[in-house]
Design a protein that fits this description.
Alpha-Beta Plaits, about 30% helix, binds zinc ion
Length: about 475
């Protein structure tokens, strides 16, 4: 007897319990993928499994739905594997130990993988049923969502006819996700030249910033340590001559940098006024960011007189100008969804090597043309200064559709079932729907899911009553003509 066998809807929880008994960490989804293939064959459904272990299962329309447009149901096979220190479970070989606590299902000592096992359970329960009415169903189970969305990136969707996609990977009932940002990494490079000089070395450090994820926290008004560093240098340039020995800051393009450093060379007679100027910059930054980033600390120390290699004045000037003048932060807010950042960029990594100054930006936008234009801006200014840009890791946006038949139907059905309005949401980070929208022209997608708490932690819980309500809701959406 299963732990969940008394729960309703029976089939959904039966499949969920089976999924929890099969190991399925990211990059190790093979067993669960094979289980889905076996399930499809047992139910005489067409099935495709690729080398990555993505699975597509197709079930033809039930009677009376032959003329309706197909619906794509999508979720991911992998789960985040976290466990408590004393938990003996090996995620590659063992199943999870499920328990029921009031309205919640939990896994003892580990993550539950309700994200996104519940999507797989819902889909299998629908595919197995003879009693549910639906148009042609095309079910997509992807791998490696939690690590880099490689499954969605690599999947061949040429057999998919549907353009209505129900993604089941959200964690709050009553919320419908309808858009996410696309993005890319843009590296701006400026070739540099050096000369030898003698003077007093001054170390400048910018630290104590809050930082954050550039897709989630770019709207929090926090400072960027790389940009504050360039500002300090610009201010020093107003009162004294100086040379740049080194500069660095940040480690990932999608993280707002929290710490940056530079070494500069000044004439011994200018040291005290340079230090005073740095103190003045520190005061300005502290005042400007006193609410949004209160821990900012800009400090300077002298190292004494040395002969060192410094950037030529011409390159140093260009470097500081470039960091200062290239855009950063929010570029535009969405006109369609209140509070949503439409386009942004983050100068995540600043590096100065023998050959070049490198500035790495995470560019994001929920509008593809805006992402292109912003990249063009970076390229134009960098090229004007004599440098070049490199683009990598490009992924498309899931753009908000003003006319979405699927969203309109889903909102209406929700209202009829629950006498309240669902919340329409969009996020500035990337999702699988964005990648799939890039492959399925004209895709109309909505992402939903039942209530979950503590996702990606050992506290993860799945609400039983919400799972039942979302199941009933999905059946109404499938039935809708
Ligand atoms: Zn997920």
């Amino acid at each position: 007897m299963g732990v969940l066998s008394e729960l309703e809807p029976k089939e959904v929880f039966r499949y969920f319990e089976e999924i929890c008994s099969i190991p399925h960490p990211s990059y190790k989804e093979e067993k669960l993928s094979d289980y889905c293939v076996k399930f499809a064959k047992e139910h005489n459904l067409s099935v495709f499994q690729d080398e990555l272990k993505n699975v597509i299962i197709i079930k033809e329309a039930t009677e009376g739905y032959e003329g309706e447009p197909p619906i794509v149901i999508q979720g991911h096979l992998d789960m985040v594997c976290e466990k408590e220190a004393d938990c003996p479970i090996d995620f590659e070989t063992d199943g999870l130990k499920l328990a029921i606590e009031g309205d919640y299902i939990t896994a003892q000592g580990t993550t539950l993988g309700g994200d996104d096992g519940i999507a797989v359970a819902y889909a299998l329960a629908i595919l197995a049923s003879d009693a549910i009415s639906h148009p042609r169903l095309e079910v997509i189970f992807t791998v490696s969502e939690e690590v880099g969305m490689e499954g969605a990136s690599g999947i061949d969707v040429s057999m998919i006819k549907g353009r209505k996609l129900l993604n089941i990977d959200s964690e709050e009932e009553g919320y419908m996700l309808t858009s996410c940002a696309g993005g890319r990494s843009v590296e701006c490079e400026l070739f540099v030249s050096w000369e030898e000089k003698k003077g007093v070395v001054v170390d400048i450090s910018v630290s104590g910033l809050l930082g954050g994820h550039s897709g989630v926290e770019i709207d929090k008004g926090r400072a960027n340590s790389n940009i504050l560093l360039a500002r300090a240098l610009m201010d020093i340039g107003k009162i004294a001559e100086y040379d740049i020995i080194s500069m660095s800051g940040g480690s990932k393009d999608n993280a707002i940098p929290r710490k940056s450093e530079a070494k500069i060379l000044v004439e011994s007679g200018d040291v005290s006024k340079v230090l005073a100027q740095i103190e003045a910059v520190a005061k300005k930054a502290a005042a400007e960011y006193s609410t949004s980033d209160p821990g900012i600390c800009i400090q300077a120390e002298t190292e004494g007189e040395q002969t060192v290699f410094v950037l030529t004045r011409e390159t140093a000037e260009k470097a500081v100008l470039l960091i200062t003048l290239l855009p950063n932060g929010i570029q535009r807010m969405s006109a369609d969804i209140e509070g949503l950042v439409e386009t942004s960029l983050n100068l995540g990594v600043l590096k100065l090597s023998r050959e070049a100054l490198s500035l790495r930006y995470a560019v994001r936008s929920s509008v593809g043309t805006a992402k292109e234009h912003l990249t063009d801006k970076l390229e134009a200014l960098v090229a004007y200064m004599g440098g070049k840009i490199k683009i990598s890791g490009d992924y498309p946006a899931w753009e908000y559709r003003k006319d979405s038949a699927l969203r309109e139907d889903m909102v209406r059905i929700y209202r009829e079932m629950y006498q309240k309005e669902p919340v329409i949401q969009a996020i500035h980070a990337g999702l699988e729907c964005g990648i799939l929208a890039g492959k399925l022209d004209g895709l109309d997608a909505v992402s939903i899911g039942p209530d979950m708490v503590g996702v990606h932690t050992t506290e993860e819980k799945l609400s039983i009553s919400s799972t039942r309500r979302v199941w009933e809701y999905i059946l109404e959406v499938l039935k809708c003509k």
